[in-house]
Backbone:
């Protein structure tokens, strides 16, 4: 794998708002609701009298912004971004929205996803004289647009097809808000409307774009629809809103891992409620791998909905056998291994009273390196569990994601090195089962009102990217 590429595993959130008297504040709230998509840095760019006002910083949304900063971000339009940590060098320069001055005026860009042909594009652009400021793949788009003459919309129609891979974008210009999504639809992007009253009591409407619908619930916006894969949606004062379309792809490759782990459970992603699909994953898992046990316990928080589903389908009682400490922050770094080993124990703790002498089914959403599960099993043994049956509500992860989810390199993924039997022995559990790929696809596609799924519904399987489980990458990887 290209070394440069490994530095750009961006789990991120984007946001944009148009025609709102509290644009920066709404963006701040929108980023807060999407903090789970990136904790490394955050930024907001607002539009005030044709100029961009910018604030970006390292850390959590609540650390980067305060009242004084938000008051300075004047204007009735803004975009924002939260960024996940990269292994790249100068992290501060990569914090988005990226800003630049084009011949058409100021441009700010927020991007969620990964451009897989970034190394080639960057090399080409540099050969033609582009000078890169950051090491972010997103900057390629800015240089491509800078080379085009004339209207930005026409430039986007020309340049976006040059990008391969995943992009859900919000862009702010001197007089418009733009949202765009790659034709395969890897990452979510949704459009909403928010009502507000002006000083005369007249009702007005602002347009909102976000990675996840949970932002709309927070700021009181109504979900209008998804930005379609291949759509460029534009709103400005002169024309109102309109859409342009890139050439459509026959098959979509929406990231199934959004439903497994990444998105917030209260969001609606690719038209389905995430909590419901996670519960369905647990139900299918129970059907595929029944076991005699006394208790179903989740690895909190990510394993909770699937464990509830498992309990419902198996009839085995559910309980919070593991408690999570919510105050440990993002990272727990210590130079010595002996202290680092406390990492999972600081976050999770087993409830001896519930577990001692019991046969337990432990449900987590995914197994990556196997570090969490190994510690959880040890913890449950120490708490007196009689039998431990580990259940994972997704298939074994055998390859990295190149489209915007931060997964380690293949060599670090436990399921790329070991068979299910070997992982079972490594974890020292009485049994281990993963949800099948078919079960996962059925869970994310089933009618959420009627959970009796027919086999024929799996035909739409190609609507999702499941490359991290199947190795079936929908684009070339350079
Ligand atoms: P591991 O201990 O490496 O096997 O990681 C498994 C845990 O990490 C599970 O509890 C998942 O909820 C969580 N997880 C899965 N994917 C990711 C990701 N891309 N970034 C951070 N955590 C993740």
Residues:
């Amino acid at each position: 794998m290209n070394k440069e590429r490994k530095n750009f595993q961006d789990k991120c959130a984007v946001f944009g708002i148009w025609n709102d008297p509290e644009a920066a504040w709404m963006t701040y709230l929108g980023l807060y609701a999407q903090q789970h998509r990136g904790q490394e840095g955050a930024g907001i760019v607002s539009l005030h009298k044709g100029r961009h006002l910018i604030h970006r910083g390292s850390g959590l949304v609540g650390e980067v912004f305060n009242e004084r900063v938000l008051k300075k971000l004047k204007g009735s339009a803004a975009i924002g971004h939260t960024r996940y940590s990269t292994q790249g060098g100068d992290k501060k320069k990569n914090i988005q929205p990226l800003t630049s001055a084009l011949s058409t005026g100021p441009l700010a860009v927020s991007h969620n996803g990964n451009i897989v042909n970034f190394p080639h594009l960057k090399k080409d652009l540099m050969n033609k004289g582009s000078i890169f400021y950051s090491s972010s793949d997103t900057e390629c788009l800015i240089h491509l647009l800078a080379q085009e003459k004339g209207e930005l919309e026409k430039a986007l129609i020309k340049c976006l097809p040059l990008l391969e891979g995943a992009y859900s974008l919000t862009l702010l210009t001197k007089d418009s808000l733009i949202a765009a999504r790659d034709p395969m639809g890897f990452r979510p992007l949704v459009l909403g409307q928010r009502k507000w009253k002006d000083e005369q009591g007249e009702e007005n409407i602002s347009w909102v774009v976000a990675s996840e619908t949970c932002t709309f619930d927070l700021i009181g916006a109504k979900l209008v629809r998804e930005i379609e894969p291949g759509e460029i949606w534009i709103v400005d004062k002169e024309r109102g809103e309109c859409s342009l379309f890139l050439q459509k792809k026959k098959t979509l490759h929406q990231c199934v891992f959004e439903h497994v782990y990444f998105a917030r459970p209260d969001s609606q992603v690719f038209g389905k409620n995430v909590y419901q699909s996670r519960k369905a994953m647990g139900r299918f898992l129970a059907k595929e791998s029944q076991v005699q046990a006394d208790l179903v316990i989740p690895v909190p928080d990510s394993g909770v909905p699937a464990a509830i589903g498992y309990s419902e389908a198996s009839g085995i009682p559910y309980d919070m056998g593991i408690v999570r400490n919510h105050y440990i922050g993002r990272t727990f770094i210590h130079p010595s291994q002996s202290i680092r080993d406390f990492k999972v124990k600081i976050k999770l703790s087993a409830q001896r009273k519930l577990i001692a002498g019991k046969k337990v089914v432990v449900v987590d959403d995914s197994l990556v390196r196997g570090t969490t599960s190994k510690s959880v099993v040890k913890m449950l043994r120490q708490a007196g569990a009689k039998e431990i049956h580990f259940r994972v509500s997704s298939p074994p992860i055998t390859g990295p994601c190149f489209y915007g989810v931060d997964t380690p390199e293949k060599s670090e993924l436990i399921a790329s090195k070991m068979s299910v039997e070997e992982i079972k022995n490594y974890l020292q559990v009485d049994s281990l089962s993963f949800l099948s790929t078919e079960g996962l696809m059925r869970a994310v596609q089933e009618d959420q009102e009627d959970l009796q799924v027919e086999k024929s519904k799996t035909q739409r399987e190609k609507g999702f990217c499941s490359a991290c489980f199947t190795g079936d990458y929908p684009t070339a990887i350079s």
Notes: Residues 13-250 form a domain with the Glutamine Phosphoribosylpyrophosphate, subunit 1, domain 1 fold (CATH 3.60.20.10).
